[in-house]
C-alpha cells in the first residue's frame, strides 16, 4: 500500500511540474529513491509504464532538480543519485528515460557539488528561484553547515563524500550500457567534468579519500575509450586536452593521476592502435604550446612532457626530438622550452651520441643535433635563454662525461678535438664571449659550464679561457666572483699544468682582500686544500720514498714532485702573489688551521733537494733550494714555531753564510753564481729564525746574535738582507734577555753602535766624493790602474749605500735613537748641488751634486730621511716640502717611486701636513714610468679606502684617466676601484662630478669650476690630465670613461644626469656661455651629444631593480607592485624631462645651422635616438605642434640623406679605385676606364637617389614610431619648397623667383630626365 502511495505521489508531482519550490523537488527525489528500493517487481513495472507516459515531464522535473543550487548543491546531487539509480534499476526502459539534457544537468550537479559555496553565493543563487523566505532559511543552514569544512564526512547541508563516490560509481555503471557515440556533446561534457574533478576536489581533500576518487575517475575515462562510445582516437584526444590543466599543475596527486592515465592507459591501448599513438605524440606538442612562461610552471610542464615522451616508442621519440630542434629556431617561448627539454631528452632517452650503434650511427646521432642546437642557443639574443642554454649545456656535459665511450664523441662535438676541423674553437670562442657577457646570469652560467668542462678536458684549457676566468674573479657581483673561484679551482684541482697553476695563483689568492667575508673564507679554504695540502702530501711522500738517481739533476727534482709542487712553490714567491699568500697564511694561522705537517713537508723538500744535489757530486755553493720553499716556511713558521727544527735552521744558516763568503772571494770554476737567490733564501731563513727565536736554545741564540751583528757592521749586505738581519737580531735579543726592559737595553746598545759606525762610513764617503772630482763616464781597460781604482770606488759606494740603508732599518725598530749626527749628513746629500750660497758656506760638501756623482747614494739618502721623518714629527714638518719638491722635479723613476711611498706614509702619520701636497702626489698618475703610475694608484686607493684622503678637488678627476691608461694592469685596477669599491663607498661621486669631468677631460675652462683662463701654469697642469682632441682615439677614450661612470649610477641619477647635461652643456651652448667656435667647446658639446645618445644613460622601464634581478624572471607578489610603482614614477619623470629637453635641442639646432657648424650632424644623430627612445613622451609634445613635427622630420630626412649619400659615394669610390688598381691596363681596359670616368656622374646620381630613398625611409620609420603607427605624410603635404617637372605641364601661377629659391634650398637637384 505504501508503494502505491509513493507511486501516486511521484506521478502527481511529475504531472504538477515539480512544484514551485525546492521542497517539492526534494520530496519527489526522496519518493523516487524510496520506490526504487522496493523489491516488488510488479510495482516497478506499473511505475515504468505510467512514467513512460510522462517521460518528457519527468526529465524536465529531474533536470530542474539536478540544476538546483540550494544546500550547496546537495539537492542536485541527490537528484542525480536517484536518476542514476532509476537508469540502473531492473527492466528500466533506459532509452526512454535517458536524455542528453538530463545527462548534462547530472554532470553539472557533480561540478557544483564539488565547488564550495560561501553564504553570499548561496543567497544569490537562492534568490533567483522565487521563494525568498524558505530559501533564506536554507541559506542560513547552508552557511551554518559550511563552517565545518574539515569536520565529519557527512553533515546536514554539507559535503558528503560517500554520496559523491556513490554517484560517480553509478555513473560508471551507467556508461557500460548507455553508449554516447550518438551524443558527442554529452561525451565531451563527461570527459571535461571527470577531468575537472581532481582539481575541484582539492578543497575537500580533508574529508574524502583522494586515491579512491582518482581510481573512480580513471575507470570512467578508461570506460569511454571503448569503441562503443565513438571513435577511440577522437575520445583520447578530447581526454588529453581536458587533462592538460592537470598535467601543467605543480606536484600533486591530480598531476600524477593525469600522467599515469596518459602514459599507461592511453599508451597501453595505443600499442595496437596507431591513431592512439599519434594522439599521445600530439599531446606532447600540445603541451609545448600551452606551457606557461614563468620558470616554475614551465618546469612542471617540461617534466610532464618528458614523462609522456618516455612512454612513447622510439620512432615517436625521434620525431619529437626533431620537433624540439625546430622549436630552437622559433619564438622566444619555444626557444626556452627547447633549451629546457634538450638536457632531459639526452639524459632520459638512451644512447644520445650513438656510441652503442655502428660507426655511421655516430654521425647520424640525434644527440649531436641537440648539442648543436644547445650551443647555438648559448648565443641567443634573449638573456634568459642564453643563461639557461649555458647551464643546461653544463648539465649535459656533466652527464655525458661520466661515460668513457661518450667522452671522445663529446669532445669532437664541442670542438675540442683536432679530428673534426669544423668544430674547432666553437665552444672556446663561445666561452670567451659569455664569461664577459653584460648580464650576470649569463656570466654565472658560463663559469658553471667551464667547471663541468674541466673534468672532460682534464683542466687543460686554452690560455685565453684561463685568463677570462681570472678576470671574472674581479667581477662586481659576489655570485660571479664565487663561481669564478670555483671554476678556476676545479681546473687547478684536476690539472697541474703550469699555465693553470700560474693563473690560479694570480687570481684566487688575491680574493683574500675581497669585501665579502664568504669569499675570503672560500679563498682560504681552496688555498689550504690546493696549495698547502698538496705541498704536505709531496713532503710526506719524500719522507717515505727516496728519489732514484739520474744524470739530469733537474729532471730528478721534477720527478720527486709529481703533482707539480715545484711550479706551485715557484709562483708562491712571485712579487704579485706573495702579498696575498702572507695574508692567507696569517689568517689561517690566527684561526689555528695551519697544520704542522706543512712546515715538516717544506723542511723535507729542502733537505731532499740538498741531498739530491750532493748525490750528483755538484758543488754545494751552487745549490739552491726549490724556489719558494724558504718563503713559505718563513710565513707558516710564525704560527708553527715548534715544528721547525733548530738543527735544520743552524745547518742551512752556516751553509748560506759560508756560501756568502765564497761569493765574496770569487768563483774559480766559473760556474754561474746565484747570489740573488742566495740572498733571498737568507732573508727568508732569517725571518724563520726570527719567528722561532723563542724556541731556540739560549747559547746558540746568543752566538747567532753576535754573528748577525758582525755581518750588519760590515755594511756589505743586500738591502733586503739588512732588514732581515736587523729584525732577527731584535728578536734574538728578546730571547737572550730575561725581561723586556733588558731586551730594550740590548737593542738600544747595538742600534747606537751600528748607527755610529754607519754615520762614520757615510761621512767618510761624502768627504771622499767632495775631495775627489772623479768621473765614472770613461770606461777603463781591464787590469789597468784606473780600473782597479774605479772598482775600489764602486765598493765604497756600495758600502755607503748599505750603511745609509742600515741607518733607516735601525731607526724603524728603535725610533728613539739619537740622530743628531745623522740628520746633517743626510741633509747634505739630499741638498747637494743647491744654489743657496748660505748653504754652501755652512756645508762645503753641498757644492758637490751627489745626484750626479753617486745616484744610488743620493736616492738611498732620501729613503733614509723619510724613515727619520716617520720617527720624528718635528723633522717631518721641516722636510716634507723638500720631499714634495723632489717628487715633482726628479728624473729618476726609482726615486720617484720611493718618494711616492714615503709621501703616502706621511699621509698616514701626518695627515694634516700632507693634505696640501696631495695634488702633487696625484700628478704621478701620469708619470712616464708604468711602475710609478701603478704604485701611485695602488697607494692612493688604499688611502682613500681608509679615509686618510677624501674624494674631493681634482683627485677624483685625475683618477679617471687610469681607466684608459696604456697599461692593462692599471686599467684592470681602475675598473675594480670604480666598479666595486667606489660604487659602495661613494655611490654619488660619479653623479656629482660627471659634468665637471666632461669639461676637464676636454681641457675646456668654460665651466664654473675651471674658469681661470689667465693662469697659464694652471692650464699646463690641467692638460696633463685631459684627453684633448677631437680625433677618434681621443673621443673613444673619453667615451670609455663616461660609460664607466654611467654604469655606477642608480636609475634616478641617470635621469638627473640627463637633465644636468641639457642644462649645463646644451643650454650653455645655446645661451652663448659655451663657445662652440672653440675647439674644446666643440669637443664638450660633441661629447654631450654622444653621451645623451648612448645606451648606458637610457633608462628602460625595467631598469629599476638590481642588475641581477632584471636578468631573472619575475617572482610576483609585492615585488611586482613595487616595480609597477617605480615604472609609473619613472615614466612621469621621463615625460617631464624630455618635454623640457626638446626645446633646448630645437634652439641649439637653429644656432648650429646659422653658424654652419659641423656639430649639426651630431645633434641630429642624438635627436634621432631621442625620438625613438622617448617616442611616447615626445608624441604628446609633437601632437600639439604639428609644424615642429614637420620641421624635425624634414631636417632629419636631409641629414639621413647626406649620411647615406656619403656612404654610397665611398662605396662607388672604392669600386672605382678597385677597378683602376688592376696591375695590367690593356687598351680595352683603358677604354673601359674612360667609360667609367664618364659614368661617374651617373653613378653619383644613382647613389644620391638611393641615399634619398634610405633617408626618407629612416625618417618615416621614426615618425611612424612617434605617431604610434600613423604613416608619415608625404612631402607634398608639408610646407616645403616644391619643384615641378618641366614635363609635368604648365608652370603658370608660380613666379620664377620661387623656382630659384627652391633650387637654392634643395640639397641636391636632379632633373626629371636624369631621374
TrEMBL record:
PANTHER family membership: CONDENSIN, CONDENSIN-2 COMPLEX SUBUNIT D3
Family matches, as SUPFAM superfamilies: ARM repeat
Location, primary (coarse class): nucleus
Start and end residues of each stretch annotated as Disordered: 119-153, 1009-1029, 1207-1240, 1265-1315
Gene3D superfamilies xref list: Leucine-rich Repeat Variant
Coiled coil regions, renumbered to chain: 1164-1191
Extent of Low complexity compositional bias: 1286-1296
GO terms of molecular function: histone binding
Keyword annotations from UniProtKB, A to Z: Cell cycle, Cell division, Coiled coil, DNA condensation, Mitosis, Nucleus
Species in which this protein is naturally found: Eutrema salsugineum
One GO term (biological process): microsporogenesis
Subcellular location: Nucleus
Assembly, per entry: Component of the condensin-2 complex.
InterPro entries, sorted: ARM-like, ARM-type_fold, CND1/NCAPD3, Cnd1_C, NCAPD3
One GO CC term on file: condensin complex
Annotated protein name in UniProt: Condensin-2 complex subunit
Domain Condensin complex subunit 1 C-terminal residue range list: 895-1014
Domain of life: Eukaryota
Keyword Nucleus on entry: yes
Source species taxonomy: Eukaryota, Viridiplantae, Streptophyta, Embryophyta, Tracheophyta
Amino acid at each position: 500500500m505504501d508503494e502505491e502511495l509513493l507511486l501516486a505521489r511521484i506521478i502527481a508531482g511529475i504531472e504538477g511540474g515539480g512544484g514551485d519550490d525546492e521542497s517539492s523537488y526534494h520530496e519527489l527525489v526522496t519518493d523516487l529513491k524510496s520506490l526504487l528500493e522496493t523489491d516488488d517487481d510488479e510495482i516497478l513495472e506499473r511505475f515504468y509504464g505510467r512514467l513512460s507516459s510522462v517521460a518528457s515531464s519527468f526529465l524536465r522535473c529531474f533536470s530542474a532538480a539536478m540544476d538546483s543550487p540550494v544546500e550547496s548543491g546537495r539537492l542536485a546531487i541527490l537528484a542525480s543519485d536517484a536518476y542514476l539509480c532509476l537508469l540502473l534499476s531492473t527492466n528500466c526502459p533506459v532509452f526512454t528515460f535517458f536524455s542528453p539534457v538530463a545527462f548534462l544537468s547530472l554532470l553539472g550537479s557533480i561540478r557544483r557539488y564539488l565547488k564550495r559555496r560561501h553564504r553570499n553565493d548561496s543567497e544569490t543563487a537562492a534568490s533567483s528561484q522565487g521563494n525568498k523566505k524558505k530559501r533564506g532559511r536554507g541559506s542560513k543552514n547552508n552557511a551554518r553547515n559550511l563552517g565545518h569544512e574539515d569536520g565529519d564526512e557527512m553533515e546536514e547541508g554539507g559535503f558528503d563524500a560517500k554520496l559523491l563516490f556513490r554517484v560517480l560509481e553509478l555513473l560508471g555503471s551507467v556508461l557500460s550500457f548507455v553508449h554516447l557515440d550518438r551524443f558527442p556533446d554529452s561525451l565531451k561534457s563527461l570527459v571535461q567534468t571527470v577531468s575537472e574533478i581532481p582539481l575541484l576536489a582539492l578543497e575537500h581533500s580533508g574529508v574524502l579519500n583522494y586515491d579512491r576518487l582518482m581510481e573512480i575517475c580513471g575507470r570512467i575515462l578508461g570506460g569511454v575509450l571503448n569503441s562503443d562510445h565513438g571513435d577511440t582516437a577522437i575520445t583520447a584526444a578530447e581526454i588529453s586536452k581536458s587533462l592538460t590543466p592537470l598535467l601543467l599543475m605543480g606536484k600533486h596527486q591530480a598531476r600524477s593521476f593525469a600522467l599515469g592515465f596518459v602514459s599507461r592507459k592511453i599508451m597501453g591501448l595505443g600499442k595496437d592502435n596507431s591513431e592512439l599513438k599519434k594522439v599521445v605524440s600530439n599531446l606532447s606538442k600540445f603541451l609545448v604550446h600551452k606551457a606557461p612562461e614563468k620558470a616554475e610552471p614551465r618546469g612542471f610542464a617540461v617534466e610532464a612532457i618528458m614523462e609522456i615522451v618516455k612512454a612513447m616508442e622510439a620512432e615517436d621519440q625521434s620525431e619529437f626530438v626533431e620537433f624540439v630542434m625546430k622549436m630552437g629556431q622559433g619564438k622566444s617561448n619555444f626557444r626556452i622550452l627547447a633549451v629546457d627539454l634538450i638536457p632531459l631528452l639526452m639524459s632520459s632517452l638512451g644512447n644520445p651520441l650513438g656510441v652503442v650503434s655502428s660507426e655511421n650511427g655516430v654521425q647520424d646521432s640525434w644527440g649531436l643535433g641537440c648539442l648543436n642546437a644547445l650551443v647555438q642557443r648559448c648565443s641567443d639574443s634573449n638573456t634568459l635563454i642564453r643563461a639557461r642554454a649555458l647551464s643546461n649545456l653544463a648539465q649535459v656535459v656533466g652527464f655525458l662525461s661520466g661515460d668513457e665511450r661518450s667522452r671522445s664523441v663529446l669532445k669532437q662535438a664541442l670542438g675540442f678535438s683536432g679530428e673534426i676541423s669544423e668544430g674547432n674553437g666553437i665552444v672556446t670562442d663561445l666561452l670567451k664571449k659569455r664569461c664577459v657577457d653584460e648580464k650576470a646570469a649569463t656570466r654565472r652560467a658560463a663559469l658553471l659550464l667551464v667547471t663541468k668542462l674541466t673534468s672532460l678536458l682534464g683542466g687543460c684549457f686554452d690560455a685565453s679561457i684561463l685568463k677570462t676566468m681570472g678576470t671574472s674573479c674581479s667581477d662586481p657581483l659576489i655570485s660571479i666572483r664565487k663561481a669564478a673561484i670555483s671554476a678556476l679551482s676545479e681546473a687547478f684541482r684536476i690539472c697541474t699544468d703550469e699555465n693553470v697553476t700560474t693563473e690560479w695563483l694570480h687570481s684566487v689568492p688575491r680574493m683574500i682582500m675581497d669585501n665579502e667575508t664568504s669569499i675570503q673564507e672560500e679563498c682560504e679554504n681552496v688555498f689550504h686544500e690546493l696549495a698547502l695540502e698538496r705541498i704536505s702530501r709531496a713532503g710526506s711522500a719524500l719522507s717515505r720514498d727516496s728519489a732514484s738517481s739520474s744524470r739530469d739533476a733537474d729532471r730528478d727534482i721534477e720527478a720527486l714532485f709529481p703533482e707539480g709542487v715545484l711550479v706551485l712553490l715557484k709562483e708562491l714567491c712571485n712579487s704579485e702573489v706573495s702579498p696575498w699568500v702572507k695574508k692567507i697564511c696569517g689568517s689561517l694561522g690566527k684561526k689555528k688551521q695551519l697544520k704542522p705537517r706543512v712546515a715538516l713537508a717544506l723542511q723535507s723538500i729542502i733537505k731532499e733537494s740538498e741531498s739530491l744535489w750532493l748525490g750528483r757530486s755538484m758543488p754545494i755553493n751552487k745549490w739552491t733550494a726549490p724556489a719558494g720553499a724558504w718563503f713559505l716556511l718563513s710565513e707558516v713558521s710564525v704560527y708553527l714555531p715548534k715544528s721547525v727544527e733548530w738543527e735544520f735552521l743552524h745547518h742551512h744558516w752556516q751553509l748560506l753564510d759560508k756560501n756568502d763568503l765564497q761569493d765574496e772571494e770569487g768563483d774559480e770554476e766559473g760556474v754561474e753564481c746565484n747570489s740573488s737567490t742566495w740572498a733571498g733564501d737568507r732573508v727568508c731563513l732569517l725571518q724563520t729564525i726570527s719567528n722561532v727565536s723563542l724556541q731556540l736554545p739560549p747559547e746558540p741564540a746568543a752566538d747567532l746574535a753576535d754573528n748577525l751583528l758582525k755581518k750588519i757592521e760590515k755594511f756589505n749586505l743586500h738591502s733586503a738582507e739588512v732588514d732581515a738581519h736587523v729584525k732577527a737580531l731584535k728578536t734574538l735579543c728578546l730571547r737572550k734577555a730575561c725581561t723586556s726592559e733588558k731586551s730594550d737595553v740590548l737593542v738600544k746598545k747595538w742600534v747606537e753602535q751600528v748607527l755610529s759606525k754607519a754615520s762614520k762610513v757615510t761621512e767618510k764617503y761624502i768627504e771622499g766624493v767632495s775631495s775627489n772630482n772623479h768621473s765614472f763616464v770613461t770606461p777603463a781597460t781591464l787590469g789597468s790602474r784606473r780600473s782597479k781604482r774605479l772598482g775600489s770606488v764602486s765598493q765604497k759606494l756600495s758600502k755607503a749605500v748599505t750603511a745609509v740603508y742600515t741607518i733607516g732599518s735601525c731607526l724603524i725598530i728603535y725610533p728613539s735613537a739619537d740622530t743628531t749626527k745623522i740628520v746633517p749628513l743626510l741633509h747634505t746629500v739630499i741638498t747637494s748641488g743647491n744654489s743657496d750660497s748660505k748653504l754652501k758656506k755652512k756645508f762645503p760638501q753641498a757644492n758637490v751634486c751627489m745626484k750626479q756623482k753617486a745616484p744610488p747614494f743620493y736616492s738611498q739618502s732620501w729613503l733614509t730621511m723619510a724613515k727619520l721623518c716617520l720617527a720624528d714629527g718635528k723633522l717631518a714638518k721641516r722636510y716634507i716640502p723638500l720631499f714634495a719638491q723632489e717628487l715633482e722635479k726628479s728624473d729618476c723613476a726609482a726615486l720617484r717611486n720611493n718618494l711616492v711611498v714615503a709621501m703616502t706614509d706621511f699621509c698616514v702619520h701626518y695627515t694634516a701636513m700632507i693634505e696640501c701636497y696631495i695634488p702633487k702626489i696625484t700628478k704621478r698618475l701620469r708619470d712616464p714610468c708604468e711602475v710609478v703610475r701603478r704604485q701611485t694608484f695602488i697607494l692612493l686607493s688604499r688611502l682613500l679606502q681608509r679615509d686618510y684622503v677624501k674624494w674631493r678637488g681634482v683627485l677624483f678627476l685625475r683618477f679617471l684617466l687610469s681607466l684608459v691608461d696604456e697599461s692593462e694592469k692599471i686599467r684592470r685596477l681602475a675598473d675594480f676601484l670604480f666598479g666595486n669599491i667606489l660604487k659602495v663607498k661613494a655611490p654619488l661621486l660619479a653623479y656629482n662630478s660627471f659634468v665637471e669631468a666632461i669639461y676637464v677631460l676636454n681641457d675646456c675652462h668654460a665651466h664654473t669650476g675651471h674658469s681661470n683662463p689667465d693662469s697659464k701654469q694652471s692650464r699646463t697642469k690641467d692638460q696633463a690630465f685631459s684627453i684633448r682632441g677631437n680625433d677618434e682615439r681621443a673621443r673613444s677614450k673619453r667615451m670609455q670613461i663616461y660609460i664607466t661612470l654611467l654604469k655606477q649610477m642608480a636609475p634616478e641619477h641617470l635621469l638627473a644626469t640627463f637633465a644636468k647635461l641639457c642644462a649645463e652643456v646644451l643650454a650653455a651652448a645655446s645661451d652663448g656661455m659655451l663657445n662652440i667656435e672653440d675647439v674644446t667647446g666643440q669637443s664638450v658639446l660633441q661629447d654631450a651629444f654622444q653621451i645623451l645618445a648612448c645606451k648606458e644613460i637610457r633608462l628602460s622601464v625595467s631598469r629599476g631593480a638590481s642588475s641581477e634581478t632584471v636578468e631573472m624572471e619575475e617572482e610576483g607578489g609585492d615585488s611586482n607592485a613595487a616595480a609597477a610603482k617605480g615604472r609609473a614614477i619613472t615614466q612621469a619623470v621621463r615625460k617631464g624631462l624630455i618635454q623640457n629637453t626638446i626645446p633646448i635641442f630645437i634652439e641649439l639646432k637653429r644656432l648650429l645651422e646659422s653658424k654652419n657648424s659641423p656639430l649639426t650632424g651630431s645633434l641630429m644623430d642624438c635627436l634621432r635616438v631621442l625620438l625613438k627612445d622617448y617616442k611616447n613622451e615626445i608624441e604628446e609634445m609633437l601632437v600639439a605642434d604639428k609644424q615642429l613635427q614637420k620641421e624635425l622630420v624634414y631636417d632629419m630626412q636631409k641629414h639621413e640623406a647626406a649620411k647615406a649619400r656619403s656612404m654610397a659615394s665611398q662605396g662607388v669610390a672604392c669600386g672605382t679605385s678597385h677597378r683602376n688598381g688592376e696591375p695590367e691596363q690593356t687598351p680595352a681596359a683603358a677604354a673601359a676606364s674612360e667609360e667609367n670616368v664618364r659614368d661617374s656622374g651617373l653613378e653619383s646620381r644613382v647613389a644620391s637617389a638611393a641615399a634619398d630613398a634610405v633617408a626618407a625611409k629612416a625618417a618615416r620609420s621614426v615618425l611612424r614610431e612617434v605617431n604610434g603607427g600613423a604613416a608619415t605624410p608625404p612631402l607634398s603635404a608639408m610646407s616645403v619648397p616644391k619643384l615641378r617637372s618641366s614635363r609635368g605641364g604648365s608652370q603658370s601661377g608660380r613666379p620664377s623667383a620661387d623656382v630659384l629659391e627652391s633650387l637654392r634650398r634643395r640639397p641636391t637637384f636632379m632633373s626629371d630626365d636624369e631621374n
